[in-house]
Amino acid sequence: MTEVPDTKDFIVKDGYLSFILPFAYRKKQIRKAADVLKKDGFHFFTLEDPGGRINDLYEGSIEISQEELDQYFLPYVERKIFPPTVEEYGFHRFYKVIGEDFTLTADGERYPFRFMSLDVTLGPFGIAFLTSRVRLLEENLPLSSVLNFMQHFRATENKLKEEKGSIIHCGDGKDFSSIHEFLLDRLASAIRPFIIHDERLTGYFGSLPYFEDERMFVTSFLFAEPGTEFSDEQLFRIGRVDGLSPEGKPFISASNMNYIRDYLDKYLHDRWAPDLYTLATDFSYTNVTTKSSEEMQRPLAHFMGTHYYNFLLHYFYRIMLLRVSFEYSRLKWDKDEEYLKRLIELITIFSSWYYFKHVSVRQEGRELGLLFRQAFSLDDLFQEVRTTLDELYRTQENAAANSMNLLLFFLTVFTVISGIYGMNLVIDDWKNDTSWSEISSYGLFGWIALITALLGIGMSVYLFFTYLGRIVWRKLKRKLDDLDF
């Protein structure tokens, strides 16, 4: 860590923060999970949303226009992210108003915050998202303190030195030293039984072994004092969520200004500068403005509504592309023929049903989508998946060709033998009841006829039961494997 030599904290007057935790769930249990969530007070979101409580999630005067959500996305995307029922494919969002105040203590500082609402989004392929929306209660905080709160809250398990020591204090006197336990034991206990905890990697904590989910992704909308001029170092720290060092001093994770400028060229969107800057990196998405919340009601509503779904789609793309690479690395080429077919099916369905380069009909939405694609390296990951798919197809074709060649070999042997004897492989002894003792008296022709007949009957029985067994095994594997879709 390098202390910031030439930059000062600006004052954050207000801030809306969201923390997104991805996890795996058993998609076959989605109906049961939906019922449990509804009993726990969660409401299923649709574009019609008869409950009408969607705007209560953000408090204040923020209003999410459902008509704008309807018009923002391309039609084939809209059907996936706003399914009318749980039974249809897509992203099934359940939301719940929390409205409780808590305090996080870390590095000798106290951060009172209000937990506004909670989302559980049950997505395709057994991937879900837990979204926590919070708002800092203390106004006029320095940037370093806000970033420090974000850094500690996003760490679901305190493993690193700079993350240890944080505690969440509840109003009833109960304390939590783990954000993961705070979320799943107190606020989202209804979904906990459906979370799949993966034990395949030694020492790994989390539900998705192909994703860095010990830390949550953080999105934020920060309001700075009017007239604030943002420096490159400050914008870099916001993108990297660089808050305070363990000694309580501001820190920045780079000291080379050329590196910082290159970083901002890649991740900073300054269409509305100098009043509003947007940063999208591999673990944070932040809007920072010098205007008041009253003046920024519409951008703030976009951040909570249309832009949230835009982000969620691209975040889902990243997780799925990493998942394919992980599943490919687990493939045992000499044993997993059925797993190979399922992996091909997974890639094909994901590419054709969900992976779209453009998701929005609006220019701002397209620009933001390109920013997310850049931040998540989606093009590189997708090219790797395309290469993986080609390898899988080639392997499957080779395996099918080898099986066909073996079958043709046996059929050719029987055909040749039958042709030599003019298709007359019948022994007179077989026309009536025969004794096995008569086999010893067979000549060369008799033995050839007997062996050919037994092999032919045996092969027919073998092929029949093999084909039947593969059907049963395929159905069983689909129930047991974790390629859940």
Automatic annotation (TrEMBL):
Residue ranges of the TM segments: 300-319, 406-427, 447-469
Name listed for the protein in its UniProt record: CorA-like Mg2+ transporter protein
Keywords: Membrane, Transmembrane, Transmembrane helix
Domain of life: Bacteria
Organism annotation: Bhargavaea cecembensis DSE10
